[in-house]
Specification:
27% helix; Glycosyltransferase; alpha/beta; 17-stranded parallel sheet; Pectin_lyas_fold; Pectate Lyase C-like; elongated; EC 3.1.1.11
């Protein structure tokens, strides 16, 4: 063995020469993958092969990031001859060893030089020797201290090794070197152990299988850290090639389960509203990267995603997680691949794989698609429609059973109308935060006269027995007057686990003798942002004011038992908002009640306002019961509002509010 100090000096000499030598070809990997078989019999190829042989250590492996085509000086040849007897820097990282083996195979196919065959077989033996008993491979072998001992999927290292084993066993014509039966058997065992390792390292998130980290601890098999900015995470890049390898392998129940779970995770985590914009200098080097918000962008995935939330994150060399690419320094931002589109191949090939393996293609949607009552909307073309309105238009009129329109993640910039004849429609989003229906109409933009407000909706529901869940509906026109996000003029409508976002007139709930239910929703706006004539129960919702104004503007019809009822809601605001009324009467018989709600300090002490309608103080019904928070000041409320007794409040049950035969008890 030569001293480590001398080895370091040798590598500095080699690195300096490689950086300055003349390039015959731009990349070594391009030469390895040349499709012109005859070229590998050329004098030029033979000259390069001598370099490849020289770089190979006697242990069988090669170092990484070497441009093997570079001409060597006599001193470098001498130094490499010394290094051959060591195992310094032998690795499978960055395609090292696997690509040199492929090159030697292509050389031997044209030139029967036994040194090429021996080199290939030594490389294969190196891979056998480097494999852990659990089936994984480290980044460096012999083992190198630090994170290099982890099982390494990074840059597809282990996948490349397993493809070699697979081809030796299943594709006898792929390599020109024909191993013995004993070696083929060893390759089969190595492959099977490797697949078993992959299955055991697939990460479970709340007991649900997802994907893989770029590296896993060689003992615990859990996701592990590599470089400072390569934190334990789920990898959008490395997981893609792993899944494709599993899909190309003879299926077992375990492999089918793994592929289905990975596909579902890729489908769930794809990003369709961002594109990467690069700025290059005159030499073609990236000097800046920015992620630009783009509608209907081709899907991409983050390189690193949080192990529990799947949220993308980014790190600089300090190892601190950041939420956006702009938060890290230029060196790491511009010098690392933070996003990838590789999983698109999984999505593209999954359907054919699923049919072949008896898997229902809609499994990832967690529903069984039926011809007439289940439609999928996906911007990437993987569903039945790419627009929500097209799916609504395909729904049957007055159906006997519920019609589900499942909307995959994405920003859908469109106005959606569910007509009166499209009853029993269930609009189901893939996720509350990432399935977004968005438009920007407002009163002035519509410009149809005094009733323009009612045409500004992003989503309009006219069909009875409607439901919406797990999505965001927003009007993005900003502070430009009336602009509805969600308009429901249908009976027996239910909206739960949704964000409803806008400014003035965000949510319109109306209709004659109409009952509607909102649960676990976040509703945001400015003036009168919940308004209309419906009987509507809001339960466990967050009601967020973003400007000093009014929350509700009910127009409850005369004689109606209940108007707007808020139960167990959080009445909140942004930091700038200081003075907000709970409501004012759009029409003089308005009814609005808050029960068991938590009111922040932005609620004005008087609570209610009459909208310059003194007569409404006698006809409107505004009340509260058992609320709390700095904004709940019952002794300072306007005299014409009410604080309910326990007996009066007991009538406000979901059964009473949403059924049709409750007497107007409080008029007595």
């Amino acid at each position: 063995m030569i001293p480590s100090k001398k080895i370091t000096i040798l590598f500095l000499v080699l690195g300096s020469f490689v950086a300055n030598a003349q390039n015959t070809y731009k990349n070594w990997s391009d030469i390895v993958r040349k499709s012109d078989a005859a070229w590998f019999a050329s004098a030029e190829a033979k000259k390069i092969a001598e370099n490849v042989l020289l770089y190979q250590r006697d242990i069988g492996g090669w170092p990484k990031n070497i441009q093997m085509q570079q001409e060597l000086t006599p001193q470098q040849i001498k130094d490499l001859t010394v290094l051959k007897k060591t195992a310094v820097e032998t690795t499978t990282d960055n395609s090292a060893t696997s690509q040199e083996m492929l090159f030697m195979s292509k050389m031997y196919a044209q030139v029967k030089d036994e040194r090429y065959k021996e080199s290939f077989l030594k490389g294969l033996q190196y891979l056998f020797d480097a494999q852990y008993d659990n089936g994984g491979w480290p980044q460096f072998y012999p083992l190198k201290k630090g994170y290099y001992t982890h099982i390494t999927y990074n840059d597809d290292s282990m996948v490349n090794i397993l493809l070699i084993m697979k081809r030796i066993v299943e594709e006898p014509d792929f390599y020109s070197i024909k191993p013995s039966a004993a070696i083929i058997e060893k390759a089969k065992k190595a492959f099977d152990k490797g697949i078993d390792c992959i299955l055991k390292t697939q990460y479970k998130q709340n007991e649900v299988l997802t994907a893989w980290c770029a590296q896993h601890d060689e003992v615990t098999l859990l996701p592990a850290k590599a470089r400072a900015y390569e934190l334990p995470s789920l990898s959008g890049k490395e997981s893609a090639k792993i899944t494709l390898l599993l899909m190309s392998t003879k299926s077992t129940p375990e492999i089918v389960t793994a592929v289905k779970a990975a596909y579902a995770w890729f489908d769930k985590t794809k990003i369709t509203n961002l594109e990467e914009k690069r700025t290059l200098n005159d030499a073609g080097k990236i000097i800046d990267k920015k992620m630009i918000v783009t509608q209907n962008a081709a899907p991409i995935w983050a390189r690193f995603m949080d192990l529990e939330t799947n949220e993308p994150f980014f790190s600089d060399r300090d190892g601190i997680k950041k939420k956006s690419l702009d938060e890290i320094g230029d060196e790491r931002k511009n010098g690392y691949a933070w996003y990838t589109d590789e999983p698109k191949e999984v999505l593209k090939k999954y359907a054919a794989w699923a049919v072949k393996n008896g898997v229902k293609v809609s499994e990832a949607d967690k529903s069984v698609k039926k011809k007439d009552n289940y439609f999928t909307v996906a911007q990437d073309g993987s569903g039945d429609f790419t627009k929500i309105q097209d799916a609504i238009n395909a729904c049957p009129a007055f159906p006997y059973e519920k019609i589900t329109v499942f909307v995959k993640n994405g920003i859908y910039t469109e106005k959606v109308k569910i007509p009166e004849w499209n009853t029993k429609v269930a609009l189901l989003g893939e996720s509350r935060e990432n399935t977004i229906i968005s438009f920007d109409d407002n009163f002035s933009k519509i410009n149809l006269g005094r009733n323009s407000t009612f045409y500004t909706y992003t989503v309009l529901v006219e069909g009875d027995d409607f439901s919406a869940s797990n999505l965001t509906i927003r009007n993005t026109s900003g502070h430009n007057g009336q602009a509805i996000a969600l308009s429901i003029v249908a009976n027996r409508a239910k909206v739960y686990n949704c964000n409803i976002l806008g400014n003035q007139d965000t949510l319109y709930v109306s209709g004659k003798e109409v009952k509607q239910y909102f649960k676990d929703c976040f509703i945001e706006g400015t003036t009168d942002f919940i308004f209309g004539s419906a009987t509507a129960l809001f339960e466990n919702c967050s009601i967020n004011s973003i400007k000093d104004s009014y929350i509700t503007a009910a127009s409850t019809p005369e004689g109606t038992a209940f108007g707007f009822v808020f139960k167990n809601c959080k009445i909140i605001s942004n930091a700038e908002t200081k003075e907000v009324y709970l409501g004012r009467p759009w029409r003089i018989y308005a009814k609005t009640v808050f029960i068991d709600c938590d009111m922040a300090k932005h609620i004005k002490p008087e609570g209610w306002e009459n909208w310059s309608k003194p007569e409404a103080e006698k006809t409107a019904f505004y009340a509260e019961y058992n609320c709390k928070g700095e904004g709940f000041q019952p002794n300072k409320r306007v005299s014409w509002s009410h604080q309910l007794t326990k007996k009066q409040a007991s009538v406000y049950t979901i059964e009473n509010i949403l059924k049709d035969d409750i007497p107007n008890w409080y008029s007595k």
